[in-house]
Each structure stands twice: as structure tokens, then as C-alpha cells.
Write a structure and sequence with these properties.
Length: 240
């Protein structure tokens, strides 16, 4: 069991106790460990990308514009999910610009949301044609790793080998937070999806908990890399 300290708030309002724990699975520790791992995969280099965790009514958020692989638990912001107020605000930084997008995932029941700038995700968005007036969507089938993706919210189990994986693609905006509207629309239009690609930018992947968000993000990245290589070889992603 995760042991989150419940000591009294500190007098300076920093609420240090919210991010201080010896438990490696405490969200403040876990975000830092995950981002260090994701950096080695090229998912969060150059300050891009990030990860946020919901634990009960507390949302743990990384600071904006920092080297995500070097963060310390004391750099982490904590928000109250119900009233959207910050319980802890380290004063040297601003919270991640991805915060409204992470909140959109938590509002749909996610326990963790990962944003990557993976080049495989970006390349896939460039390979799916932009058809004005139509939704863009990456589709692939008959790849074993598809079985690593859940069927959908409220549905039991994962997709099968013969199921088609569909990940909607939204257009990028100049500011990260301006993606929120189109991300929410894609979530409504594709209620089974656990991920949304952002053209020329990356991907948002969420899961019921940290373990699921991480493994889904890994499965998708594997599939995107495969899809890019398939395209180079002239192989089709779907049968029809
Ligand atoms: C390399 S800057 C990238 C940012 O603009 C953004 O896309 C991003 O993913 C990270 O935003 P941040 O506010 O640092 O958490
Ligand atoms: Zn980004």
C-alpha cells in the first residue's frame, strides 16, 4: 500500500508533506522516476512531454519548461481535483502547460496521463493524410502488440489480434493548452480510445492507473515505429 503522509500543512504554504515520502510509488517520486525512464526512450527530451498522476482527489503535476528527466519530488505541483486549486505550488516554476489536457483525461476516469514527443508518434501523424472536413485517425490491424490496448472505457479486456486499433489525430496549436478543446472532442467522438495523437507534436496516452498508462504508451510507441517501417516497405496497415 502506498503510504502518503498526512502531516499538518507547513506554515509557508508549500505543503511539503504532499510530495515527501520514502515510498517509490508515491506519485511525486513515481513521476520523477518515470520521466527519467521516458527520457531514455526519446519521449520527453528537451523539456517536451511529461506525466501526471491522479491519486484520490490529488493531481500531481510536473513544472513547465524544465528538464523532465532531472525533476525532483519537491518540484512537483499538487492540485485538488474537485476545486482545481493548487495545494502545493513550488514558487520557482509554473505548472506544466499540459495541465488542462491531463485534467481532461482524469475527468474521464484516468489515473495517469503521459504526454510524449516520440518521433514515431509524430511520424505516424505525418503519414495519415489530412482530409479537410473529415476526422483523421490512425488505423492498424493484425499486429500482436494491439493486444496491449484495452477495448474501451467500461469494457472488459483488451483488443484482440483481429480487432482494428484506432487512434484519433488532432491538429497542433501554437500553445499546448489550446489543444484542450479538440482533445476533448476527440475523446467524445472516440469514447473507446485511451490515446489521442497530435499532428507534428506527439501523443497523449492515459490509463486507469500508472501501470496501464505506461504499458499502453509502450505498446502504442512500438506499433507506431512498426507502422513507419511498414510504410517504408510499402506494406499496408489494414486489409481494407
Ligand atoms: C519543447 S517545448 C514543449 C512544450 O511546449 C510542450 O509541447 C510540452 O510538451 C511540455 O510542456 P511543459 O509546460 O514543459 O510541461
Ligand atoms: Zn507537448
Amino acid at each position: 500500500m502506498m503510504a502518503i503522509e498526512t502531516a499538518m500543512s507547513s506554515n509557508d504554504g508549500s505543503n511539503h508533506h504532499l510530495v515527501h515520502s520514502d515510498d517509490p510509488m508515491h506519485p511525486a517520486n513515481h513521476i520523477c522516476t518515470l520521466c527519467a525512464k521516458f527520457y531514455t526512450l526519446g519521449w520527453v527530451t528537451g523539456t517536451g512531454g511529461g506525466t501526471s498522476i491522479r491519486h484520490g482527489e490529488h493531481i500531481y503535476i510536473a513544472p513547465s519548461g524544465v528538464q523532465k528527466e532531472l525533476m525532483k519530488p519537491t518540484d512537483i505541483f499538487v492540485m485538488d481535483f474537485n476545486n482545481r486549486e493548487y495545494l502545493r505550488r513550488p514558487n520557482v516554476h509554473k505548472p506544466s502547460a499540459c495541465t488542462p489536457l491531463f485534467l481532461a483525461a482524469f475527468t474521464r476516469g484516468a489515473g495517469c496521463c503521459i504526454h510524449t514527443h516520440s518521433q514515431w508518434a509524430v511520424l505516424v501523424t505525418l503519414l495519415v493524410e489530412r482530409d479537410f472536413g473529415k476526422d483523421a485517425c490512425f488505423e492498424i490491424e493484425e499486429i500482436e502488440q494491439i493486444k496491449g490496448i484495452p477495448k474501451g472505457r467500461g469494457k472488459q479486456g483488451n483488443l484482440g489480434y483481429y480487432d482494428r486499433l484506432r487512434i484519433p489525430i488532432i491538429e497542433n496549436t501554437a500553445q499546448e493548452e489550446d489543444l484542450t478543446d479538440s482533445l476533448e472532442k476527440a475523446m467524445e467522438k472516440y469514447p473507446d480510445t485511451y490515446a489521442v495523437l497530435v499532428r507534428r507534436h506527439g501523443i497523449y496516452v492515459w490509463g486507469d492507473n500508472v501501470h496501464k498508462a505506461k504499458t499502453q504508451c509502450e505498446s502504442l510507441d512500438y506499433i507506431f515505429q512498426l507502422a513507419v517501417e511498414m510504410k517504408k516497405l510499402g506494406l499496408l496497415w489494414t486489409n481494407k
